[in-house]
Design goal:
Blueprint: E1 3-16, H1 19-35, E2 39-44, E3 56-62, E4 65-78, E5 85-96, H2 103-122, E6 128-138, E7 145-149, E8 170-172, E9 186-192, H3 193-197, E10 204-210, H4 212-217, H5 222-230, E11 233-237, H6 241-253, H7 259-265, H8 276-288, H9 291-308
Antiparallel strand pairs: 1-5, 1-6, 2-3, 3-4, 4-5, 6-10, 7-11, 8-9, 9-10
């Protein structure tokens, strides 16, 4: 059974010391999108009466689909020792749907992300990762895959393997209240990607969402943190229904799974391993790509197109 590791959503943030610098950087990014003929809408949120700051949100469209979103705002932190208040003015960008399996939209979304990174790198504008969706896309039916957390985090509640969930084509791993989803460090779920995207072939996606708290916690060693997070889950290809039911029962019978239990149950013989090299390569490219690299790649694509014609 064929499967691959993909990145589906990326969040980055730019911090500035004052509003003027923040707005100048924002104007440059928006100008980039306008040159790419992307449609931009603006939404203002009500003024915060306590901080006197407001949030503005931009949605970037291609073919009537949101390919990126921008949120601008500010926050203040008071030093408890000196009582000095420091205000940070930020630009938060999210690029979602990088791997929809729609060739045109995927190309536009990925192009928008890397052109943004190239613009920031060329202009020496520092940015940081704040969100990342790492996926394992498996070319098989949803019912053939079993995804479980085998290294549970204390104070986190998990769904039991046999516990009935809300949707028949989605299996959540962590049991998190809807209003607490954005506050989680990470969360994962399995769903029928073919059903969601209307694909004509079988495709099931395991998706691990790494959120802002994760990057605040792992800022010094992001790659190591991602590897440790992926290692918490077993994504298993189990086409035999009886074998799958057996694994589910054994999982539910163990409140804690030790390495010897995993070995005894032969979880690893079913496991589909994520390709960490894909994740590392993707992140590295974001932080080193330059505008000349984008132009060179475009020329290479045009050259290949001409040769084919």
């Amino acid at each position: 059974m064929r499967y691959q590791t993909t990145i589906d959503t990326v969040g980055i943030q730019i911090d500035a010391v004052n509003e003027m610098n923040r707005n100048m950087m924002l104007e440059g990014i928006l100008a980039l999108y306008k040159r790419e003929n992307l449609y931009i809408t603006i939404k203002d949120y009500p003024l915060n009466q306590h901080s006197n700051f407001y949030i503005r949100e931009y949605h970037i469209y291609a073919h009537n689909i949101v390919v990126a979103s921008i949120k601008t705002g500010s926050f203040s932190i008071k030093d408890t020792l000196t009582n000095v208040v420091t205000t940070t003015y930020y630009i938060s960008l999210e690029f979602a749907g990088l791997m929809r399996y729609n060739q045109i939209l995927d190309q536009i979304t990925n192009s928008t992300l890397f052109k943004t990174c190239a613009y920031l790198n060329n202009n020496l504008i520092t940015f940081k990762l704040t969100g990342l969706d790492v996926c394992i896309d498996l070319y098989t039916k949803f019912n053939n895959i079993l995804a479980l957390c085998t290294k549970k985090t204390p104070k986190t509640v998990y769904w039991a393997a046999y516990e009935k969930q809300v949707y028949t084509s989605t299996t959540y791993i962590e049991k998190i209240k809807h209003n607490k989803l954005q506050q989680a460090v990470q969360r994962a779920y399995l769903y029928d990607k073919a059903f969601k995207e209307g694909l004509e072939y079988n495709l099931t996606r395991f998706e691990m969402k790494l959120q802002p708290k994760f990057f605040n916690k792992n800022r010094e060693n992001v790659i190591s943190g991602i590897m440790n997070s992926l290692d918490k889950y077993h994504v298993m290809y189990v086409p035999n229904k009886k074998e799958k039911q057996h694994l589910m029962r054994e999982y539910d019978n163990h409140s804690i799974l030790r390495q010897r239990d995993i070995k005894k149950l032969k979880f690893d013989s079913y496991r589909c391993h994520p390709d960490v090299a894909v994740v590392v390569g993707f992140i590295n490219r974001m932080f080193i790509v330059k505008e000349d690299d984008i132009k060179e790649n475009q020329c290479h694509l045009w050259h290949n197109k001409l040769l084919r014609s």
